[in-house]
């Protein structure tokens, strides 16, 4: 039986801020149009949810907080401070806690950046996405390159730790276009860079455009070239490729996201947020009104709790862990499941090694360079 | 009932002209069935039939009306089942010919009229759907005149609205001759359909032509001489109702402990074993499948499941043949024989739907007759079994006479299509002012590969097709082999016309490139004739397949994605090192977008 039950080890708190000024063409996360009065009401119940969990949990050691969205930077620094204060007063916040916030350049100015820092945020993740205006427009972003640049320069004054998010594999994007945006990002010398290839998800404007043949996805070959150019270029510039989509300077790996990949617990707060206690997963109601109604009745706004079997836990630890370039720790696996990886996956490991997709050493099982590019092939093989 | 008060009739019609609806109204009007029992179209009782709007199994219902016993014999409505149609017709003395008042006479109408005339049936023309805005009964009457049927005898109906149903019933009584009174002769009963019931065994639908049969009689099937004792006799009114005996002129069913429909085939004659008739009724033939294809479970573990399912289907369908077959590529499966493409599709669909088996189907094939250098005569229904090219002396393939009815504006494109499919023009005649009947001699193999779909698309759905076997003729054919990753895939072999072989090879490998997903390595796909490569494409190696998005801790979503990927892979067949999806084995039937 699995150990680490019920937030046994220090955990993360993901907080979803479901407000946006406008919806991007590729985004399928839950969000609603920003309105001040919604935010006020939402804040009350968000806080209530945080308090409800604190009453329920025995262990309250928090090692990372992540404000994601939506657009968390639509909340004022004092609103952010209010949320963090609630956490500080209800949980045991570890001293070296990472407190990340996603931010859209359009919603930032120097003063706000300074105030966020004062409120307690110690890591900003900036959704710059591209350094070409035509691409930003196509993606449906409301900021432009000029704004990004001024924001990054201001962020640098107050934040040592910030990340730039880039999207690539945009329809019609040329390799040169992506190289430009990547090099531009590197010029700012951020501690962290995330790279996501564009996924066209159901229910988004892009999905509709694709169906109507108004856009075409870029070829697998070009996607491959962009990604592998980035891997090399970032390495040259002192970034460690530590997870499939993430690159960071030494000691600046995202602590919160590492909880996901190391299959450690995290609370999910806010509508549509996902949580994991080390044994079961749950996710919250999406619709903000229903979310509020639940909490008004002092009930958890949970849509579904997913009880995971031992097999499911094992599979998930593998396909999440293999996303890390260092791979899955054999010792962690055995500590957790009282059986070794090699016992569970003897044939799979043999097969994938033969195909050149994974390697292993004394400590870890990890993806090869080829395996990183073909991650899903390996991940699906580890499903039990 | 004395013969003077019996009428046996069937309804013939082109698909969708309202045959089943008219049958429903006749049953309703005569209170044979109460409204509340009335499912829409009572006679079509299989789901698949309802969905496709066609009748597969013939049935018979007794209607009591004004002291008369009217037996309505339903007929299947598709060319694949024309033998069953002809036997249903042989069980009757008259036919209601239903014609859609808006559509007029169609290919199948004609085919059915000919069958009815062959069986010497009295034809009562019914112009149906007169409620439609587009109805044009006058046009239909003119068409009737052209095909030699007196338009003044036509009855105008709207089966949907129940108009003139009484007139139809009276015409059946007045115009259709009573059956002959041959009750003193030895028993001869025509089997015009049979179904299998898991409790009672085979239920044979019969028309007693001569003599009589009663419960307890010992009967003999004249085709294979098997003997049985009659357990139950009955009629359908419309549910099964037992009776003590059936006499010449009557229509009903016999249950006699027959365990297999193959022992009670359509067209067979039932007689008494202690007083047998000297001759069976004319026209019995064992229906031979014309189209063959390989059916394989996509999961090899389902082999026995598939076998059981085929056996169960065969209980009700004597024309379905199957025998075990092994393919290097697909493993263990069955080579199955079907009456035609529709029959094949119906069986496949039933296997997948009713028995929940994932199937891999190979492209349909006809039976080729091959004479080898050594003087051997082979009948080959699986292209993979063809001898080497240099061992073959002669190949013969089945030819049909295809009759295509089409509005005149499509003549050009349909003639072109026939020629592309090796059709030889025989005849063209105007059926009426705007429609023609085209006759072509064509290889059956061309008809069973997508011809019908193309015919429909090139005529915007207006063309209809009917065909009759002519016989075997020599043809210049070669086997086209497909190699995937340098290994021949037996299940992808096809027989093609030699002149087209290179072109067909190129087309096929191009289609396979679209259908076979990228693998972890480059996969060459080649077409070969007699071990010579005639076409090649490469499927490039898959280089990138990784989900990069984080989804904010939503592990479920990642998991679902991976599970879908795993499931997709499971549904493919591993041939050598290559995963090939099910659709690829039907690639011969696919059409390229640019074609």
Structural key phrases:
heterodimer, A: 384 residues, alpha/beta, TIM Barrel, Arc Repressor Mutant, subunit A, 2 domains, three-stranded antiparallel β-sheet, 17 strands, 22% strand, B: 595 residues, alpha+beta, eight-stranded antiparallel β-sheet, six-stranded mixed β-sheet, 12 helices, globular
Walk me through the structure.
The complex is a heterodimer of chains A (384) and B (595). By secondary structure, chain A is α/β, with parallel strands linked by helices. Chain A has two domains: 11-261, Aldolase class I (TIM Barrel, Alpha-Beta Barrel), CATH 3.20.20.70; 311-380, Arc Repressor Mutant, subunit A (Orthogonal Bundle). Chain A has 16 helices and 17 strands. Chain A has helices at residues 36-56, 77-90, 110-119, 133-139, 145-158, 175-187, 205-211, 220-236, 255-261, 288-296, 310-321, 330-337, 341-344, 346-354, 369-373, 375-381, and strands at residues 11-17, 19-20, 32-33, 61-69, 92-103, 123-129, 162-168, 192-197, 240-243, 246-248, 266-269, 274-276, 280-284, 302-307, 328-329, 358-360, 364-367. In chain A, the strands form four sheets. Chain A has a nine-stranded mixed sheet with strand order 9-10-8-7-6-5-4-1-11, sandwiched between helices. In chain A, β4, α2 and β5 form a beta-alpha-beta unit. Chain B is built from twelve helices and 33 strands. Chain B is globular. The relative contact order of chain B is 0.08. The chains are: A alpha/beta (384), B alpha+beta (595). The interface between A and B is medium-sized, with 42 and 25 residues.
């Amino acid at each position: 039986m699995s150990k680490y039950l019920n937030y046994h080890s220090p955990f993360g708190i993901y907080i979803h801020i479901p407000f946006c000024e406008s919806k991007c063409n590729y985004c399928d996360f839950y969000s609603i149009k920003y309105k001040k009065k919604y935010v006020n009401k939402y804040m009350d119940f968000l806080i209530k949810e945080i308090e409800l969990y604190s009453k329920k949990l025995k262990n309250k050691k928090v090692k990372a907080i992540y404000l994601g969205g939506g657009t968390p930077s639509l909340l004022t620094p004092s609103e952010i401070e209010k949320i963090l204060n609630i956490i500080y007063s209800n949980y045991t916040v570890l001293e070296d806690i990472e407190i990340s916030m996603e931010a859209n350049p359009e919603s930032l100015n120097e003063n706000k950046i300074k105030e966020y820092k004062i409120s307690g945020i110690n890591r900003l993740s900036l959704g710059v996405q591209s350094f070409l205006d035509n691409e930003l427009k196509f993606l449906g972003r409301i900021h432009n390159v000029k704004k990004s640049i001024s924001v990054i320069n201001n962020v640098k004054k107050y934040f040592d730790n910030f990340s730039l998010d880039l999207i690539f594999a945009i329809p019609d994007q040329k390799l040169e276009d992506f190289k430009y945006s990547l090099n531009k990002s590197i010029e700012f010398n951020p501690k962290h860079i995330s790279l996501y290839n564009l996924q066209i998800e159901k229910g988004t404007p892009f999905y509709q455009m694709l169906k109507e043949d108004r856009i075409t996805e870029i070829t697998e070959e070009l996607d491959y070239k962009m990604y592998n150019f980035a891997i090399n270029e970032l390495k040259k510039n002192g970034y460690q490729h530590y997870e499939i989509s993430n690159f960071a300077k030494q000691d600046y790996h995202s602590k919160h996201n590492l909880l996901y990949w190391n299959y450690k617990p995290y609370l999910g707060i806010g509508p549509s947020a996902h949580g994991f206690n080390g044994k079961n997963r749950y996710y919250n109601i999406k619709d903000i009104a229903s979310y509020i109604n639940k909490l008004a009745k002092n009930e958890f706004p949970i849509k579904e709790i997913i009880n995971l079997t031992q097999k499911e836990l094992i599979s998930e630890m593998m396909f999440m862990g293999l996303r890390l370039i260092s791979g899955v720790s054999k010792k962690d696996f055995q500590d957790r499941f009282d059986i070794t990886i090699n016992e569970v996956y003897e044939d799979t490991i043999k097969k994938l090694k033969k195909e050149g997709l994974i390697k292993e050493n004394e400590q870890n099982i990890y993806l090869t360079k080829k395996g990183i590019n073909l991650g899903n092939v390996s991940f699906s093989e580890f499903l039990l | 009932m004395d013969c003077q008060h019996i009428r046996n009739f069937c309804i013939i019609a082109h698909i969708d002209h309202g045959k089943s609806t008219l049958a429903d109204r006749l049953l309703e009007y005569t209170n044979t069935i109460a409204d509340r029992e009335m499912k829409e179209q009572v006679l079509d009782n299989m789901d698949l039939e309802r969905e496709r709007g066609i009748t597969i199994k013939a049935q018979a219902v007794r209607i009591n009306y004004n002291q008369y016993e009217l037996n309505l014999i339903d007929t299947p409505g598709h060319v694949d089942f024309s033998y069953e149609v002809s036997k249903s017709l042989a069980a009757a003395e008259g036919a209601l010919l239903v014609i859609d008042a808006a559509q007029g006479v169609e290919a199948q109408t004609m085919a059915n009229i000919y069958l009815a005339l062959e069986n010497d049936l009295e034809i009562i023309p019914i112009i149906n759907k007169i409620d439609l805005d587009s109805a044009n009964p006058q046009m239909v009457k003119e068409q009737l005149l052209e095909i030699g049927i007196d338009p003044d005898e036509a009855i105008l109906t709207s089966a949907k609205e129940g108009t003139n149903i009484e007139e139809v019933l009276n015409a059946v009584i007045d115009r259709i001759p009573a059956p002959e009174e041959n009750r003193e002769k030895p028993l001869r009963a025509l089997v015009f359909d049979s179904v299998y019931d898991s409790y009672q065994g085979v239920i044979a639908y019969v028309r007693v032509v001569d003599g009589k049969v009663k419960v307890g009689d010992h009967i003999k099937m004249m085709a294979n001489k098997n003997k049985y004792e009659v357990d139950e006799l009955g009629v359908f009114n419309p549910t099964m109702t037992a009776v003590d005996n059936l006499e010449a002129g009557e229509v009903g069913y016999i249950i006699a402990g027959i365990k297999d429909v193959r022992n009670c085939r359509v067209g067979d004659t039932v007689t008494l074993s202690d007083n047998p008739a000297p001759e069976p009724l004319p026209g019995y033939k064992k229906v031979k499948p014309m189209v063959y294809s390989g059916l394989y479970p996509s999961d090899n573990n389902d082999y026995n499941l598939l076998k059981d399912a085929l056996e169960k289907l065969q209980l009700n369908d004597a024309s379905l043949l199957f025998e075990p077959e092994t393919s290097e590529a697909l493993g263990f499966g069955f080579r199955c024989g079907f009456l035609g493409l529709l029959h094949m599709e119906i069986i496949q669909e039933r296997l997948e739907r009713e028995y929940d088996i994932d199937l891999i189907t190979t492209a349909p094939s006809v039976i080729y007759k091959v004479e080898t250098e050594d003087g051997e005569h082979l009948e080959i229904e699986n292209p993979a079994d063809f001898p080497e090219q240099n061992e073959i002396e002669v190949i013969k393939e089945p030819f049909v006479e295809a009759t295509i009815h089409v509005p005149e504006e499509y003549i050009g494109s349909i003639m072109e299509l026939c020629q592309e499919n090796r059709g030889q023009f025989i005849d063209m005649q105007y059926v009426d002012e705007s429609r023609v009947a085209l006759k072509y001699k064509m290889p059956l193999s061309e008809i069973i590969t997508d011809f019908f779909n193309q015919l429909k698309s090139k005529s915007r759905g207006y063309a209809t097709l009917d065909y009759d076997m002519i016989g075997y003729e020599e043809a210049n054919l070669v086997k086209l082999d497909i190699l995937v990753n340098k290994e021949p895939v037996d299940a992808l072999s096809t027989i093609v016309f030699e002149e087209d072989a290179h072109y067909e090879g190129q087309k096929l490998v191009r289609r396979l490139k679209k259908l076979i997903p990228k693998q972890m390595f480059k996969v060459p796909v080649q077409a070969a004739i007699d071990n010579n490569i005639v076409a090649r494409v490469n499927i490039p190696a898959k280089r990138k397949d990784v989900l990069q998005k984080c989804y904010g801790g939503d592990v479920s979503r990642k998991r679902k994605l991976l599970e879908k990927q795993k499931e997709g892979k499971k549904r493919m067949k591993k041939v050598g090192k290559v995963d090939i999806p099910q659709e690829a084995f039907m690639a011969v039937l696919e059409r390229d977008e640019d074609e």
